Amino acid sequence: MDRRFLAAIGLMMLVVLAPMFFIKRPAVTPNALDTTLSSIGAPDSAARPYTPGLPSPAPIGAVPRVIRAPEAPEDTVMVRSGLYEYAVSTRGARLIGARLLRYRSMVAEDGGGVVDLVRPGDGLFAMALVAGGDTIPLSGVDFTPSAADIKVSGPTPLTLTGMAGGYPVELTYTFHHDDYRVDVAGRVTGLGPAGAVLYVGLGEGIRNTEEDSVLNARDFALVTRTPGQDPEALTFRKPDAGETRLVSGPLAWAAVKSKYFVIGAFAKDTARRWAGAQLTRTDAEKVPHHARMQVSLGVGADGVFGWRTYAGPMEYPRLGAMGEEFNDVNPYGWPGFRTVMRPFALAFRAMFVWMHEHLGLAYGVVLILTGFLMRVVLWPLNQKAMKSAMEMQALQPKLTELQARYKNNPQQQQQEMMRLYKEHGVNPLGGCWPMLLPMPILLAIFFVLQGTIELRGMPFLWFPDLSRADPFFIIPILSGLSMFALSKLGQRGIPPNPQAQIMTYMMPIMMTVVGFTFASGLNLYWTASNLASLPQQYLISQERLKRQNAPVVKTKK
């Protein structure tokens, strides 16, 4: 999140934003079981909530015997559709590749190839089974696949079978050709009445897909949702290197996200939620990029388990289709501010996408039209607010007289001023609207440009990407100049005011400087909005000059 943007908006609105409070979870030191299972991605054995009637993880200090399968030749099953290419390893039945065919990687080393969500050497859904006092890593089990390669058309299953620590294991992935959703169903035979606990790894974070890897890493997080509650994000920066944070269940879903992409794991049904999740920092860099994430699930005596996954882009309609409020994994707005801002951001996102897809307009044109459209919609309110400011200006001599007359009686002074406002039908706060009205819109578009994948990589004019800063700094300068012209015109016909003169010059300069790092689309919208305001500002200034020739203020009847 760009703090300079927040500072700029704060100055423009002349208010102080209330400080945000964050609840920090207590740190949990990994125990011996976490160390034992670190190579397979199984979580530590700290006690945590679990689904009633199903076995819980072993308590701290109880380290089960680890049974490892002998190394076997690894093969890869390629699963292809028009949306993706998933690579499933026969060793451990892990997902070792998730290429999204409709999205291009912005990383120079990738040479313009498609996005792959899985880091080199990493894997998704690496499993470990804790049963009968033993820990059985499935990551070393040689599974036999039902097919060598799969072309997905409709719901298409891939079944993998293997033997893990004397237990037959069957795992079935069901792929869908028109979605990034994958249904997972499994069975472990011979567990007995005690059942087992299954640990599922979510990898060490999504592979970097953006040109600015540091900015992308700021959005790396483990996001979880408890049924009936809002999702909570645990960023990679919160734990120290080697430290583990636990998230108590039951959980409807747990997901790993970056700026534009997400890998989610959903509980199969309400009866068997995820028992918990954990995040362990595995790097010591100042800006972390790696953290190991796992979720745990109780397995009953029948040995049946399952979940749903999503490994793809954060396209809002697809996220919503997964249910369980999964679209909140991509929040619009800052914590504590999101409830107010999110409806605006979602409305603008829907409008932008609709205009692009149904009217065939480039997103840059959409932003320009939106800038003009918003000023047209707000024209009556701005007109009323600007006239209110002129009325205040006309009343200024009488207000000054009252202040001098009652300088020793502040209470009486306040009463007389309010009487004067009422007598002339003037709202003392009415002149603030021209500055305040565009701010929610500007903030909403800021959030849309920051996290909406539909705008990612969209070029316009000389901008290579509307969601990134202008590499030539042209549009921030134009934005600053348009803001200066609007402010200068707004001072026309107003008696000299040193503070107003300073703001006329300082605000455009400040917005230009901080605008160098803003998304070029945001500056494009703001420039168009300022230009659309010039005619109204000119007409108001003309009326103001006319009133100077007839400064008498008419009493409201």
List keywords for this structure.
single chain; 557 residues; alpha+beta; Beta-galactosidase, Chain A, domain 5; nine-stranded antiparallel β-sheet; seven-stranded mixed β-sheet; 13 helices; disordered N terminus; disordered C terminus
What does this protein look like?
It is built from 13 helices and 21 strands. The chain starts with a helix and ends in an 8-residue tail after the last helix. The chain has 2 domains: 23-330, Beta-galactosidase, Chain A, domain 5, CATH 2.70.98.90; 342-378 and 437-549, no CATH class. It has helices at 3-13, 32-36, 213-217, 316-321, 338-358, 363-377, 379-405, 410-424, 433-436, 438-451, 474-490, 498-515, 520-549; strands at 65-66, 76-80, 84-89, 95-104, 114-116, 127-131, 134-137, 144-145, 149-151, 156-164, 167-175, 181-188, 196-201, 221-225, 232-235, 244-251, 253-257, 261-267, 274-281, 291-299, 304-313. Strands 8-10-11-12-21-18-17-14-15 form a 9-stranded antiparallel β-sheet, with no helix packed on it. Helix content is 34%, strand content 23%. 41% of the residues are buried. Mean pLDDT is 79; it is low at 3-8, 11-64 and 551-557. It has 557 residues and is an alpha+beta fold.
